[in-house]
Specification:
- The chain is α+β, with helices and mostly antiparallel strands.
- The chain folds into four domains: about 5-15 and about 170-315, Molybdenum Cofactor Biosythetic Enzyme, Chain A (3-Layer(aba) Sandwich), CATH 3.40.980; about 20-40 and about 150-170, Molybdopterin biosynthesis moea protein, domain 2; about 50-130, Beta Complex (Molybdopterin biosynthesis moeA protein, domain 3); about 325-395, Beta Barrel (Beta-clip).
- It has helices at about 5-15, 150-160, 200-210, 225-240, 255-265, 295-315, 365-370; strands spanning about 20-25, 30-35, 35-40, 50, 55, 65-75, 90, 105, 110-115, 115-120, 130, 140-145, 165-170, 175-180, 185, 195, 215-220, 240-245, 265-270, 275, 280-285, 285-290, 325-330, 335, 340-350, 355-360, 375-380, 385, 390-395.
- The protein has a six-stranded mixed sheet, with no helix packed on it.
- Helix 1 crosses helix 6, helix 3 runs parallel beside helix 6 and helix 4 packs across helix 5.
- The two termini are about 40 Å apart.
Length: about 400
């Protein structure tokens, strides 16, 4: 068996490099910047008020309370027709340009307005409530660096500085195929003897959607070598990556491994991990293909350990693995010491920190426990038994808000 880390390294080395493209900022959410961004303008674009109040000269506030003549009102989106002179003030709203001559804004709560004048009750510091032009971002300043993942917050900044298009690494189109005569659509009722509903394809499509990717559904292909060959070849031509499930074990009816070997440089591995020991990887005409096992939990584990980090690499991400934290086991567990074992666990708050409790049955066909789980408890090779109270490493794929 090949160690997990070695298998993943081979997969990551075997996928294409990310490809840059230019897109509108509005269509860049979740993508990775392929070049640095510098600001074409300054933010704010002019000195303005940070609150509702009165624009004044600080030197006029030497003795408070004091009364100043109010020359005009300025709302946001408007500009004062005159400036602030000695003994005067201009009423100003948040975001309005600071009038000439003013250097401080007194908040409205510290004033008592009258007809044509205002009484200033408190003396703020000089420059109070004034947002200076370029105080956030200066012209030509670096805004974001290549490699950053664009979030909604990034898009807000890009809009503020006036950037309309960005260079990003393009998203990956991924083909998803389920295989096997026993697999039927989830809508089939009643199930014929020997048939199972396809849970792998909906799950994989959902996992890709959670990554912000477009999954192309190639349906279910039975145990027919010609149909498998045609579908895999077409998917490899039309998409950037292909994910299959089923047919990569050692049985004589596992046609997928034979067809994949015929189509390209596909390698079949027995990875020292549980679940998901059988795994196929390679390329068809340069398009990477991930041959996942058939059991649904194995599909999920193999996707997380191989397909997800590889696809993220193809999109220019540098952080490609799930975050890991430590927790305390809530119960005893026994695992195979010859494999890296992924137990599906629920993470709970305990008296001394995080506790990890088995989410349910751990067999590779029990998908319901995976749905309840927050993380994998990762049991390394060489460990066979762990006891309640031991520290375990968790690979987090969901963070509870509770």
């Amino acid at each position: 068996m090949i160690p997990l880390a070695e298998a993943r390294a081979l997969v990551l080395a075997g996928v294409p490099a990310p490809q840059a493209t230019e897109v509108p900022v509005a269509g860049s959410l979740g993508l990775v910047l392929a070049s640095d961004v510098r600001s074409p303008s300054m933010v704010p674009p002019f000195d303005n008020s940070a609150m509702d109040g009165y624009a004044v000269r600080f030197e006029d506030l030497a003795h408070v309370p004091c009364v100043l003549t109010v020359s005009e009102d300025v709302a946001a989106g408007h500009v004062a027709t005159g400036g602030v002179e000695q003994g005067t003030a201009i009423k100003i709203m948040t975001g309005a340009p600071l009038p000439a001559g003013a250097d401080t804004v007194v908040r409205v709560e510290d004033t008592v307005p009258a007809d044509g004048s205002v009484e200033i009750l408190a003396r703020p510091g000089p420059g109070t409530a004034v947002r200076r032009a370029g105080g956030d971002v200066a012209v030509g300043a670096p805004v974001f660096e290549s490699g950053e993942v664009l979030t909604a917050r990034h898009l807000g900044v890009l809009a503020a500085v006036g950037v309309e298009r960005v260079q990003v690494y393009r998203p990956v189109r991924v083909a998803v195929v389920s295989t096997g005569d026993e697999v039927v659509a989830p809508s089939i009722r009643p199930l014929a003897p020997g048939h199972i509903r396809d849970s792998n394809r909906p799950m994989l499509i959902g996992l890709l959607a959670e990554m912000g990717l477009e999954a192309i559904d190639y349906g279910i292909v039975g145990d027919d070598a010609d149909a498998l060959r045609d579908t895999f070849a077409r998917a490899a031509t039309e998409c950037d990556a292909v994910i299959t499930s089923g047919g990569v074990s050692m049985g004589e009816y596992d046609l997928v491994k034979r067809v994949l070997t015929e189509l390209g440089g596909i390698e079949l591995w027995k990875v020292a991990m549980q679940p998901a020991k059988p795994f196929a990887f390679g390329a068809i005409g340069g398009t990477p293909l991930f041959g996942l096992p058939g059991n649904p939990v194995s599909v999920f584990v193999a996707f997380e350990q191989f397909a997800r980090p590889a696809i993220l690499t193809m999109m220019g991400h540098t952080s490609i693995l799930r975050p890991r934290i430590e927790a305390t086991l809530a119960e005893d567990v026994s695992t195979d010491p010859e494999k890296t074992v992924f137990l599906r666990v629920v993470v709970e708050a305990g008296p001394s920190g995080r506790m990890a409790r088995l989410a349910g049955g751990q067999a590779s066909n029990i998908l319901s426990a995976t749905a309840r789980a927050d993380a994998f408890a990762v049991i390394p090779i060489g460990v066979s038994d762990m006891s309640a109270g031991d520290t375990v490493e968790l690979e987090m794929f969901r963070w509870s808000n509770e």
